[in-house]
Amino acid sequence: SKGIAVAASLIDAHAGGLGMIGANVKGYNLPCENQPITSRLAVICGTSSCHMAVSKSPIFVPGVWGPYYSAMVPGLWLNEGGQSVTGKLLEHIVQGHAAFPELQTKSEARAQSIYTYLNGHLDLIKKSLPVGLLTVDLHVWPDFHGNRSPLADLTLKGMVVGLTLSQSLDDLALIYLATVQAIALGTRHIVETMQVAGHHINSLFMCGGLSKNPLFVQMHADIIGMPVVLAQEVESVLMGAAILGACASKDFASLQRAYAPQTNSLCVLTLGQ
Fold first, then answer.
1. Residue 72: helix, strand or coil by DSSP?
2. How far apart are CA 201 and CA 32, in angstroms?
3. Distance between CA 269 and CA 186 in Å, rounded?
4. pLDDT tens for residues 198-230?
5. Level-2 CATH architecture, domain 12-84+188-270
6. Signal sequence span per UniProt (predicted)?
7. Interior/surface letters 77-94, b for 16+ CB within 10 angstroms, e for the rest
8. Pick the CATH number of 87-186 from 1.20.910.10, 1.10.455.10, 1.20.58.2240, 1.10.510.10
9. 215 neighbors 177 (Cβ within 8 angstroms)
10. C-beta neighbour count of 183 within 10 angstroms
11. Whether the model pTM is above 0.90
């Protein structure tokens, strides 16, 4: 109706990046605390994952989309990396294993998600070892649906190395862990490629369904060697859309001012936590 402000829309991943990349991090002793948001990488991770980095000047990164001017944050250039399958890959690996029916039965008996159960099972079998070392003989190449970034090669295929004849729940848990690690290594490859091209990233900000999986988040912190920040407001995509609406309402002079009132509590996971 007349008088209702309508904001210009954003792609879902762009809205998620907007909804968290400017979060207030004062008091958390993060390397990005006294630095501009160009030191942050927003990772929006669900069925697939997108990796959003902004810069004051255009940076051309091989195999990474952009740079796009003012596409996510006004006045800044956006580069967007991506992994075509992440959550979908975990689902594919787990549901295709012979022990999946056993996993379903046991997780339902405990009223847990299959991933919560697998994370707990890994804690049981790791004993005194760091969980990341359980897969020393098992490795996954995660490009089951091609590689979006940074290789930009849709013909690539996935691979699992180190398989045995085992069909046990232990084996399923280890392949799940190796897949999580492979996804984190893919993100590391994207980050390193961005860094070489001229970005200066020192912190990851993560949202989306996979950010609710503690193992997934921790493996990213361990493998990339950077803190991973989770906002208390888990619906960062909706937050980004709300920021656009607030700006369109003209109650705020700019998008930056619309963002300013947000002082989310944060959860920070660091290397080896």
1. coil
2. 9
3. 19
4. 999 999 999 999 999 999 999 999 999 999 999
5. 2-Layer Sandwich (3.30)
6. none
7. bbbbbbbbbbbebbeebb
8. 1.20.58.2240
9. yes
10. 25
11. yes
CA distance 213 to 171: 20
pLDDT at 155 over 60: yes
Q: Are 12-84+188-270 and 87-186 in the same CATH fold?
A: no
Q: What is the dihedral of CA 251, 255, 259, 260, to 10 degrees?
A: -80
Q: Yes or no: say if 227 and 204 are a contact pair by the CB < 8 Å rule.
A: yes
Residue 252 burial (CB count, 10 A): 16
DSSP state of 160: E
Place of tokens 């996510």: 72
Q: How far apart are CA 205 and CA 211, in angstroms?
A: 10
Query: How is residue 154 written in tokens?
Result: 């849709």
Give CA–CA dist 119/198, Å, rounded: 36
Length of the chain equals 273
